[in-house]
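Box S1 | Example of a co-folding query
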Amino acid sequence: MRAPTDRDDFQNASGHALVFDSGVGGLTVAQALKSISPAVHVDYSADTGYFPYGDKSDEELRRRLPAVAAALVEAGKPDVFVIACNTASTLALDEVRARLTVPVVGTVPAIKPAIAESDTNTVGLLATPGTIRRPYTQDLIDEFARDATVIKHGSQSLVALAEAVARGESPPLKAFAEAQAPLFSANGGDRMDTVVLACTHFPLVRAQLEASAPRPVRYVDSGDAIARQTARHLLAKRRPTLVDRRATAFVTSSVDELGGLPLTFKRFGFPHLQDVSVGVEATSTATVSSAGARR
Ligand code: DGL
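Box S1 (continued) | Returned holo structure for D-glutamic acid
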């Protein structure tokens, strides 16, 4: 049988996916999945009670991730759980898989496609400090970029900037210029023509990165690849789409503590909110009206 690889195949995918990130970064992945597989019911989940991940210790995250994944899957009951977060995936994908009974799709920094696209064999890797220091990331570089130059830079401030933009704020371009400047000023940075956005928050500010770069470079991310991999899992399962509730964003803090986030979720197609206690059952639900109030 032909492998499901083209857009026509992905259109036939059905079932229920739960996309997960520490915050808003996975929304771009959820969008990509909805666009290639419109019949799939996509829910979103964010570990808002523990955000951000990028500056947490490996030990803290290893403890947190299987527990939060189990609580979210228990609440959402998806056919597939999608870790749309490089920081989590590069550290604890195996631990999360071991804890869950549903298939788990992880996120791999797009180093291989970036090398394929680079004319100068010099790429930048822009990620959280956590992803930058992971042995998993170094293994990818050793496997796919052995003969290339990879300039790494971890920026937690860019995660905060992306969250701000997702909430409707407009941070100055100078802040984006500063966040990516170390890539361009590093040794070999003058030859860099491609930058891997190895944090799912960063595609949300691609336009700001392009506008503030000292010269044009290509920005590559793994959003579409994660969406395709998720669609493949669902095609293989052939489950009908049975979920009849509205697209939901599951969060791990109280809905009351989310500030402007509910409107962001609503704008990305997740009008219903549900808070989930990690390790315990869901505690309450709310729906965002067009005015942003809960009902
Ligand atoms: N979006 C996450 C990633 O892909 C990390 C953001 C954070 O929580 O620091 O790495």
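The pocket of D-glutamic acid is lined by residues 21-23, 25, 51-54, 85-87, 128, 131, 159, 199-201 (CB under 6 Å). The longest helix spans residues 58-76.
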